[in-house]
Design goal:
Rossmann fold, alpha/beta, Cyclophilin, eight-stranded antiparallel β-barrel, 26% strand, single chain, 2 domains, 351 residues, 18 strands, globular
Length: 351
Amino acid sequence: MGNQEIPSTTPSGESSAASGQETPEHEPFQEEPPSPQPEEPGSGQRGGNILVAYFSWADNAVLADDVDGVSSSSVTPPGNVQQLAGWVQEETGGSLFSIQVTDPYPSGWDECLARANQERRDNARPELVAQVENLDQYDTVFLGYPNWWDDVPMAVLTFLEQNDLSGKQVYLFCSHGTGGLARNVERITEAAAGASISGNIFDCYEREASASQADIQAWVRELGYGGNDPMETNQTARQIQVQFGGNTVIYALNSSAAATSLYEQLPLTIQVEDYSTNEKIFYPPQRLDTTDTPLAQAGTGTLAYFEPWGDVVFFYGDYNQHPSLYELGQVVSGGELVSQMSGTITIDIAD
């Protein structure tokens, strides 16, 4: 079986190739993918109408070869806020969206500080790579960000001004240093004047972010958006490991039907193929059930399923959203190794 082209959508509604390669010779499957059905708001709500948007230095920096992954944990993937957002998404089953600027920040602390301070003095609004598609489908937004030197990153204000959150319930989570939340909440409230911003805010010290999974997921459940059923909570915590050439990449699966379909086929020893310049793919023995599965809306690190061709996709670069591309989960560790996958890989339940 050949590979698929994941098209983008032009203003006219026509499809155009995402990577510039030719469309595969075979025809796609003809069945229409089911549309995720939004749930009614309420206690224990999960999935389709929840957006988890976040800004992370790790998603917005050009990494230098000599960056120290220990002392610079905020900038090396997965970054502090990136991890927090992944755990919120895991608990809620919502859609993950990374706020990314077109002009990445330096990976050096001093250089990034200088630019951030200049943007703050200029009250700048850095240009973003993308906006949220179909924002109207979400009525609840979890918004994560770091405290950048006693202020909110200006890119977060760009996001809020370009994506109208009026009438939506918004919950904030933040990673910070000794400055705490500073004026972040006031700044965000001003930029999203029409939103209902909760005063129940999750914040943690930046050096404790990597150990905050239990705390932030307990916070989500306290808000009434987590998996209240113990069986469902266990499902959202499912992790799989992908092994190749002595390397291991860990993914956290969401609670969707498609992720369950993949999970139930494990273990697998299977061939992985290169596709375009941003993904590796494989074809599971059985097709996945996409009923009520959220559409893939994140960037690097997404594990997805392209329903028309029936292949699972490991994204190690940004990609265009598509109405037949479904999210299965997000990378937890080893994401920088995905581009090196080749030949035969083994996929199994993580210990």
